[in-house]
């Protein structure tokens, strides 16, 4: 069974359920504290939290996922215009099938704070604690990198910290073999890193070169079974700008 519910102060305002794919048209404005609650017997599901946000394949260790719709202000800045706005919201859920080789890190439905759906991105610093520089932007599926700030240019900003670390948590063991990084490329505003290090949860570590380019940079890892990885030891180039940043990280592999 699969279900979607809109919950406010413990009350269910709207809901839908079914054996396979479920769609819910919620006709009402969101308020502070509302949750979109997804539940599925499948541990792998494809959810769409709003008609303006891309679907996300997520792993649900408990079978449920409470998504907090962002409201006006900073929280909405990394989403397309009209996302979560107004009084018509189309939401969907379906079990995910197949185990093709894919980017296991992508999750447009990721959020800051405690989550019950994976993958999930966190960091030890986010510039000025603004949503447009949050770790979750690096797994939203967007590659456009020639700008910074509001959608579609969300990125992970490090506030000029030299000890910045980004963690990708898959929520379960997966098998991976490659990373692809997209550095933010809003030059000359941006600087870039000339090298970085990835440490996998199985203990493997690799340091690799990076270039100041607008596009993918692939890092081969060999095959590893991991639950998480950390991107760190990011070394900035000697450009005057103090603002290197990451637009997207992809982690390729398969579920186990």
Q: How are helices and strands ordered from N to C?
A: EEEEEEEEEEEEEEEE
- Would you count the extended β strands for me? 16
Cα(first) to Cα(last) distance is: 23 Å
Task: Please state roughly what percent of the residues sit in beta strands, choosing from under 5%, 5-15%, 15-25%, 25-35%, 35-45% or over 45%.
Answer: over 45%
Helix percentage range: under 10%
Helix count equals 0
The whole-number mean of residue pLDDT values reads: 97
Report the sheet with the most strands, covering strand number, pairing sense and barrel closure. 8 strands, antiparallel
Uncertain segments: none
What is the general shape?
globular
Report the structural category: mainly beta
Radius of gyration: 18 Å
Q: How does this structure look, described?
A:
With 256 residues, this protein is mainly β. The protein is 0% helix and 46% strand. The protein has strands spanning 2-8, 11-18, 22-26, 35-40, 44-48, 56-59, 64-67, 89-95, 102-103, 120-123, 156-157, 166-183, 193-200, 205-209, 216-236, 245-255. Strands 9, 10, 11, 12, 13, 14, 15 and 16 form an eight-stranded antiparallel sheet that branches. Strands 2-1-4-7 form a four-stranded antiparallel sheet, with no helix packed on it. The radius of gyration is 18 Å and the shape is globular.
């Amino acid at each position: 069974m699969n279900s979607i519910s809109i919950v406010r102060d413990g009350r269910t305002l709207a809901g839908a359920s079914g054996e396979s794919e479920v769609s819910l048209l919620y006709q009402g404005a969101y308020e502070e504290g509302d949750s979109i609650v997804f539940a599925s017997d499948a541990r792998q599901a494809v959810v769409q939290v709003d008609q303006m946000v891309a679907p996300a394949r997520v792993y649900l260790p408990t079978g449920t996922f409470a998504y907090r719709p962002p409201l006006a202000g900073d929280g909405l800045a990394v989403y397309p215009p009209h996302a979560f706005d107004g009084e018509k919201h189309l939401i969907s859920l379906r079990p995910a099938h197949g185990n093709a080789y894919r980017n296991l890190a992508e999750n447009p439905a990721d959020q800051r704070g405690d989550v019950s759906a994976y993958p999930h991105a966190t960091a030890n610093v986010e510039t000025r604690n603004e949503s447009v520089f949050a770790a979750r932007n690096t797994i939203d599926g967007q590659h456009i990198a020639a700008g910074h700030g509001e959608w579609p240019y969300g990125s992970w900003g490090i506030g000029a910290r030299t000890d910045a670390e980004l963690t990708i948590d898959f929520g379960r063991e997966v098998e991976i073999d490659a990373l692809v990084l997209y550095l933010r490329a809003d030059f000359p505003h941006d600087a870039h890193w000339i090298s970085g290090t990835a440490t996998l949860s199985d203990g493997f570590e690799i340091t690799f070169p990076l270039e100041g380019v607008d596009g993918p940079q692939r890092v081969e890892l060999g095959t590893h079974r991991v639950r998480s990885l950390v991107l760190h030891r990011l070394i900035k180039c000697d450009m005057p700008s103090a603002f290197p940043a990451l637009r997207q990280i992809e982690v390729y592999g398969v579920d186990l």
